[in-house]
Each structure stands twice: as C-alpha cells, then as structure tokens.
Amino acid sequence: MKALITGAAAIAALLTLVGSAGSSRSTATTLNALDVTNLSTSMQGDLFEVVGGQIALTHSKTPAVRKLAARLILDHSKAYKESATVAKAFHLGVPTVPSPSQRWELRVVNGFTGNTFDRAYATLEVADHTQDIMETKNEVKRGWNESVRRLARLDLPVLKMHLAMSVQASKVAFSTS
C-alpha cells in the first residue's frame, strides 16, 4: 500500500520535522513523516478495499468471499471517513482514489471470474491485510501524533479480524473446484 506523498504533504511533514527537531514525541499538534504517510496510505487502502469489495460483490459466487467483501466495504468506508477528518484538520490532502499500484491490482482481479476470481481476491486480501497490520503497528509504535496513533490503535483489531476473514475465505475458495 505504498503511495507517493503529495508535494504539499511532504512539505508539511518536512516543516513539522524541522520545527520539532530535538523533541522525541509530541502532542496532537505535530505530525511526523510517518504520520503523514500513514494517513495517506491508509485512506488509499480504505478506498482500495471499498472498490475491491464492490467488485467482489458482483463477481463472487462464494458466500465466504461475499461476506468478506461486504464487511470490508462497511469497515473501510468508516475508517476512510475518520482518517479524512483527521487529515483535513491538519490541512493534508485527502486521496479520492486508490494508489496506482492498487488500481492495477483491482484491474487484474476484476478480469477474473468464478473460482479464479474468488481465489485471487481472497489471496489478495490476505496479503494486503498482513501488510496493513504491519504498517499499522509501526504507526502505533513510531508515530508522533496522538490522533493518528489513536486511529491506528482502533484500526488494528479490525484489520486482524479482516485478515482472519480473508484467510477463511481463501480456504473456502481453494477448497471449491
């Protein structure tokens, strides 16, 4: 879910780092580069999950995959709104589309049908949520801004549940012929 930071966000992060040199962790008024990157990539990831879930609802025939997709749409729509509120409070850009690599992944998976789709989608979700959990743990541990870290702490159990659902959906998808 790596994405490029917008120019304005990069400048804001740089100014924040320069302005807070010498401090270890600040309060809700300061963002470090990790906070800015985490907000941006999280929102793009949320959009990726919503669009991917919508594709899955139209392509999948497997109940476990459809259940996963519906849950991802619900939870990631909520997370996107919460992250966008925090980003706007810091005058950061709010992405409106997934990253280029995520859009490519969605195009690829959208080209599959039947069991091939279910297997590809569930596998993609296992890999994506494994990475999301790692990145979210990093924000909780190394982020400076309490608002961003709070979002990450709230997201972590949801992402772990999504991973478990993705693993289950993958098992089901690979057990059907």
Please sum up the structure shown.
This protein has about 180 residues and is mostly helical.
Structural description of this entry:
The protein has 177 residues and is an all-alpha fold. It has one domain (30-175): Ferritin (Up-down Bundle). Helices cover 77% and strands 0% of the residues. The protein contains 6 helices and no strands. It has helices spanning 7-19, 33-59, 63-89, 100-110, 114-142, 146-175. Helix 2 (33-59) packs parallel to helix 4 (100-110). The two termini are 31 Å apart. The model is unreliable at 1-27 (pLDDT under 50).
Sum up the structure in keywords:
177 residues; disordered N terminus; Ferritin; 0% strand; mainly alpha
Shape: elongated
If you average the pLDDT, what whole number results?
88
Q: Sketch the major β-sheet.
A: none
- Secondary-structure element pattern, one letter each: HHHHHH
The tally of strands reads: 0
Rg over C-alpha atoms, rounded to the nearest angstrom: 17 Å
Q: In the CATH hierarchy, what is the superfamily?
A: Ferritin, core subunit, four-helix bundle
- The structural domain count equals 1
Q: What's the CATH topology label?
A: Ferritin
Unreliable segments (pLDDT under 50, ≥5 consecutive)?
A: 1-27
Topology (elements, then pairings):
Elements: H1 7-19, H2 33-59, H3 63-89, H4 100-110, H5 114-142, H6 146-175
